[in-house]
Amino acid sequence: MTDEPQQILITVQDFDTSISQLQHRKATLGERKELDALESQLAEVATRTAERQVERGALLERQAELEDQIGTLTARRRTIEDRMYADRSAAARDLQAMESEVRHLTQRRAEIEEAELEVMEEQEPIDAALAILVEDRAQLQATADVLRSEVVAAEAVVDAELASVIVARAAEAKRLPTELSDRYETLRARLGGTGAARLIGNHCAGCHLELPSVEVERLRRLPPAEVVTCDQCGRILVRS
Ligand SMILES: [Zn+2]
């Protein structure tokens, strides 16, 4: 373990980079993307189901109205028939009028029954579509349940890793001089999470640009404890 502040700093930076990567991994889990896609499919199935149920409801309402009408006609016919059989002494003319009304009621009822049959036929494709939607939903739901537990498991793995990196980072960061630590945090906040970078050959590993050879020579000759920054990106440049 080094006590050289800049070496501690670059270790802290490495931990911070790992933390960002782990957070990114957690936020972009493949399982969660799949789950999101499934959930929008489920929402679509729910919308289509609701639409079909509205259609079905309207047809059932229509059917109930027709059945009401059939009931009324049947009751009316029974009343007249009862009167016909009860009053055998009724005048022939009255009987004829009653028979004619019974015929009319019978015909009217047949028409309404026909209409009811049509309404019931219209329900068949809707019921079939609803049955398919119920199956689709069950299948999607089962897959979503599996994915949901996979997401939880994958998140737990990342969380465990994150927790241990955060602990290790805190232990290193504690050893940094306050001034260097503050400077690093300010740069890191401003420069997308990277406040310190290694000088590798002639390159700054923070911005990946090449520094002029003369500049690199100058930096290398400076005392190791002196804190220097990259001219191009402004990050603390750590010489190995
Ligand atoms: Zn740079």
Q: Count of DSSP helices?
A: 5
CATH class division of the largest domain:
Mainly Alpha
Q: Distance N terminus to C terminus?
A: 15 Å
Strand order of the largest sheet: 2-1-4-3
Total count of strands: 4
Bound molecule kinds, no repeats: zinc ion
SSE succession = HHHHEEHEE
Which segments are poorly predicted (pLDDT under 50) over 5 or more consecutive residues? none
The CATH architecture category of the largest domain equals Orthogonal Bundle
Mean pLDDT: 95
Broad structural category: mainly alpha
The radius of gyration is 41 Å
Helix content: over 70%
In total, how many domains does the architecture comprise? 2
* Global morphology: rod-shaped
**Biggest sheet details:** 4 strands, mixed
Structural features:
240 residues; mainly alpha; Helix Hairpins; 4-stranded mixed beta sheet; 5 helices; 4 strands; binds zinc ion
Description:
This protein is mainly α. The protein has 2 domains: 163 residues, Helix Hairpins; 61 residues, no CATH class. The protein is 77% helix and 5% strand. The chain is built from 5 helices and 4 strands, in the order ααααββαββ. A 4-stranded mixed beta sheet has the order 2-1-4-3. Strand 1 and strand 2 form a beta hairpin. Helix 2 packs antiparallel against helix 3. It is rod-shaped, with a radius of gyration of 41 Å. The two termini are 15 Å apart. The mean pLDDT is 95. Bound molecules: zinc ion (ZN). Zinc ion binds next to loops.
